[in-house]
Amino acid sequence: MGKLLDESLVTGLPPFLGLQRDQIRLILDEAVSQRHDAGANVFSEGSPATQFFLLLDGHVRAQRTTPNGDQVILHQIPPGEMFGIARAMGLEAYPATAVVVAESIVLAWPMRLWEPFMARFDGFARNTFRTVGARMHDKNDRIMEMATLAVEQRISSALLRLVNQSGRKTPQGIEIDFPITRQDLSEMSGTTLHTVSRTLSAWEKAGIVQSERKKITVLQPHRLVVLSQPQG
Q1: CATH at residue 215
Q2: In the predicted model, what is the mean pLDDT of residues 205-228?
Q3: pTM of the full predicted structure?
Q4: Residues 49 and 31 in one domain
Q5: Rounded distance, CA 79 to CA 82, Å?
Q6: Is the C-alpha dihedral spanning 88, 93, 96, 101 positive or negative?
């Protein structure tokens, strides 16, 4: 199926930057295109890492399950980003589950090609290091937030991360461009669903956000930035 995919669809994506058209063709010829419906798993936590992926369109999130069965959202994966790169972390199994948030199209390669691609194509190597570094930085930020910030600050910080990753400008403000529930937001900010609902309701009354079913639009981003800052 890789042969049916035109090179122009990926030339602007980070892993392919700086590569010649014939190099891109070689990479795509090894890929399989997959379509996943919302709610499906691209792969599951603990399963053998047999493939790595690039998200072409849609939205995927990585999440883990705690020992008591709770879901923890690790990060959101926007279009153009690689995921399932367990081998880059020296792992033989996927450390998290990749859940499809909105209907998505991904490219998949067999994991046996990971080292050859890294050695042969600089774009893959650079993008991998950048992706792993960004995720580590994000995790460190979230650990600091959990330790030092009040609940309202953590919720506003989580919303700002989503805006930066997948915000889409609209006449009303900046819409988070994939389905997001209040439960998702509570998992991302380490608080309860009740607290998130109460906080969003207060922000709606203040004209800071607009919240509908699985949809959040930030109407006043600058006020959200202020709310995310430590007080005093």
Answers
A1: 1.10.10.10
A2: 90
A3: 0.74
A4: yes
A5: 9
A6: positive
